Every structure is written in C-alpha cells, then in structure tokens.
Amino acid sequence: MSIAEQISEFKCSYKLLFSMRLVFILLLFSWLFLPVLLWLSLVVIYANTSTEDNGNGALGLLVMFSLSMLVASRYVGFLWGGADDMPTYFMAYERYNSFSSMMVTSLLYGKHADFLFSFLSWVIAMLSEQHLFIYYFLCIFLSYMFIWKFCKVVGTPYPLLCFLLIVLFYKLFQAQWHLIRAAIAIPILLCGIWKAKENFKVGLLVFIIGALFHFSTFILLLPLFLFNNKLSNRFSFIQFSQSLIAFIVGLFLFILFVFLLSGFVDNYMINKVLTRLVIEPNFSKLPSLVFFIFVSIFSIGAYIRDGNESQRMLFNIGLYFNVIGCLAIFFIGEELHRIILPMYIIYAPLLIMSLGVFSPSSVPFMFLLTIKSFVLLSFSYVIYINESEFFYKLDSKRHPIELKGIDYLSSFKKYFSEDIEYYNGYRNK
C-alpha cells in the first residue's frame, strides 16, 4: 500500500471516528429534550454500531437511571389481580431496625432468608432512614449494573446493544421484588461461572456472593458451576442425550431427597420447594420459553461451526434452562418465569455472538432487526397501557410515554422529597 493510500485510509478512519463521537455526544444531550422512549429507540440503533472500544458507559448509566426511575415510579399496591409482591418487601424494609433482627424481619415479612439481600436492605434503610423510593430505585439500579458487568465479562462485541436487549425485554424491566432479587443474583452467579474458568477460587467467591442474594437461583445454577469446565465443550447429539438422561435422573433423585428430608426437618426453604412441586400443567408462560428455544435453535449454526468459548458456554447454559423450562411447565407452569429467568439475561449475548456465521449478512441483519423491533414495541406497549401507573405522583396529566429526560429528573426530585405510598397488605397470588 502506498503512502498516499495509507493517508487516505487514515483520513477515512478519522472521519468515521469523529462522526461516531459526534453522534455519541448528541445522544447524551438529547436525553434531556426527547421523550425517553424515542431516545431509547435511537440508542438501540446507535448500539448496533457501537463496539466495546467506544466507551459507552455514560449511555449505559443514562439507560440505567431512566429505567430505574420508570420502574420505581410505579404504584406499589394491589395490582395484577393481587399478584404484586412489592408491599410485603416494603413492610419488611420499614421494620429493619437492628442488624440482629434483620433476618427474622426478612423471613417474616419478605418471605425470604437471603443474607446479602437482607443486609443490603438493612444498610439502605439505616442510611436513608427507611426511605422507600431510594430503596426501590437503588435495588433496580444495582441489578442493571450487574447485568452490564455480565455483558462485559462474557466478551460480547456489542455490550451496549446486549444490555439494551436484556433490560428492555418486556418481562424483565417491570420487575417485582422476587425478580429484582433474582436479577441481582443471576449476573453475579453467571460471572462466577465465567471467572471460575480462569481462577476457580475467585469464581467460587463470586458465586457464593450471588447465592447469598437469591438462594433458589443459586440451586438452579449450582450444577452449571460444578461442571463449568465442561460448559465450553461442543457436545454431540449422543453426548447431549446422555447428559439429558443423567440430568433427569439427578433431578428426580433431588426431588425425592427433598420429600424424604421434609419428613424429618421442618425448614422454610424445603417447605417452599414442596409447595411448588405440584403436577399442574400450565402453558400461560409458554410464549417466553418458545422464544428462548427459538434463539437457541438460531444459535446452533455458530455452536457447530465457529462459536467461540463464550458462545458455546452460553449455548450450553441456554440448553440447560430450556430443558428445565420444558419440564417445569408440567409441574410449576404458573411460575415458569422464575425457572427460566436466567434466559432473559443470556439470550442477548448468545444471539449477538451467533450472528457472524450466517451468509449472506442480510439474514442476521433482518433477524436482529426483528428482535430489536419486538423488544421496543413490547416495551412501548407496556408503558402505553400503563397498568402499573408509572409516574402516578406527577401533577401533570401527560402520559408516561411522553415524558422527556428533564421530566425524569424533576420526577426523581419529587419522589425523593415526598417518598411513595403503597398498599399495606399481602398479595393473594
């Protein structure tokens, strides 16, 4: 290549870099003046061209703030036919007075015994004088930060796009408390699995930290951690069949063990598992599982041909939860979203890492465009119907879908100064 050609190539690269930086800066400032929903759509478009080298932490933080404000602004009460579990956690939060009674309070009101989540709740309660909005906002924001970290750890080439496809997914962003706890724990547990490949002791420590945020999710992911050295393997059909049979037998033995143990030990966690192990097929949550199975099928090409280690790990983990999901439909179908919640987090990096093997390039482009459109439209629809009464404290009669970034800032100030009210009672579902 001649010197003139090198100079010309350098100029083109510089112009492209300058134009991308300009778009990045415009996106940052436009958040103040554009409806946040429109702004998020523009960020999704930008994220498709934004690699890990472009330093989009600022955009990620704005997305985290926006969604945390949106979710924390909703009315906490007798919603969704009495299925809202938020009031019970607020009842616990308002009663965190001393460290010694922290776990008892969590168990009595929040119906959980997860030490680190209880400790986090107690610390926020002590520092904020039991401010409800700060508690809600910070827990959601923290879950998004861990999801962002996971997107970076797995090495996806488009971490911002990966993050957006996860947090805007309609079943995840409008989280209740049991899902918020799980959304904090899952990326930590998954990071522990990835870290254990490099350093087992560090991975184990990270995995234990995640376990102390949500124990039942820890149980679901424990087999993956124990066999993490196998997760990057490319399994044949025969190996997969053998693993499936071994897994089903192991699952049956675990259930049998829990039943036998319940005859000797009266433990809350054991009783909680037993109350959900009822043969009652329920297919109401099947569409989400079908979507994730379809993503896994789409990813087979990269898995067989040229998937990198992270892609193979994501694919094998996805296969694990798809199998569990198919079995869970017949036992705890109504709670299927709890079982396959890790899929809401791993589907995006799996999808993005699997696109490169397709030819022509228009195939993955159209597929990704379809997924992004679905995520944005479903997200918009949930806000549009406003069943959760987002921004219910605002005096303005504007619909939440119209609010701009500057409105989010003023709303944050209002909620911070006035705090929130909630329905003081237990859910009936």
Describe the structure.
With 429 residues, this protein is mostly helical. It has helices spanning 3-30, 36-47, 57-72, 86-93, 102-110, 115-128, 132-153, 159-167, 177-198, 200-211, 215-226, 237-262, 268-276, 286-298, 300-305, 309-332, 336-339, 341-353, 362-385, 405-418. The chain is globular and about 60 Å long.
Helix coverage percent: 55-70%
Tell me how many strands there are. Answer: 0
Low-pLDDT stretches? 4-18
Helix/strand-derived class? mainly alpha
Number of helices: 20
- Overall pLDDT score: 81
CA(first)-CA(last) distance: 70 Å
- Computed over alpha carbons, the radius of gyration is 23 Å
Overall outline? globular
Largest sheet: none
Report the sheet-strand fraction: under 5%
Order of helices and strands: HHHHHHHHHHHHHHHHHHHH
Short description:
The protein has about 425 residues and is an all-alpha fold. The chain has 20 helices and no strands.
